[in-house]
Amino acid sequence: MDRTRMANERTFLAYLRTFIVVLSSGVAILRVEALQDMIDLGIFLLAIAPIIFIIGLARFLYVRRHIRKYYTTKIKVEEE
C-alpha cells in the first residue's frame, strides 16, 4: 500500500515539476528582450501551465480516492 501511495505522489510531483518548468519558461520568454518575437509562445505557456497543474491535482486526488477504496474493501474482505 505504501508503494502505491508513493507512486501516486511521485506522479503528482512530476506534474508539479512540469507546471513549474512551463510557467517559468513562459515568464522568461516574456521578460527577456532577445525573445520578444516569441511573445505568443510565452503567453501560451503561461496559459497552459495552470491547466497542467489542475490535471495533475485532479489525477492525484482521483487515484488517492481509489487507492483508499481498494485497500479498504480488500481489508474488509480478508477479515471476513
What labels describe this entry?
80 residues, mainly alpha, 0% strand, rod-shaped
Instruction: Give helix % range.
Output: over 70%
- What coarse outline follows from CA principal-axis ratios? rod-shaped
Tally the beta strands. Answer: 0
Q: List segments where confidence is low: pLDDT < 50 over at least 5 consecutive residues.
A: none
User: What's the number of domains?
Assistant: 1
Number of H/I helices = 2
Largest sheet geometry: none
Q: Element order, helices and strands?
A: HH
Oligomer: single chain
Q: What's the average pLDDT?
A: 91
Task: Tell me the radius of gyration.
Answer: 19 Å
Give a description of the structure:
The protein has 80 residues and is mainly α. It has one domain (2-79). It has helices at residues 2-31, 39-79. Helix 1 packs antiparallel against helix 2. The longest helix is centred in the C-terminal third of the chain and has 41 residues, at 39-79. The chain is rod-shaped. Pfam families: DUF202. Keywords: Membrane, Transmembrane, Transmembrane helix. It comes from Salinimicrobium oceani.
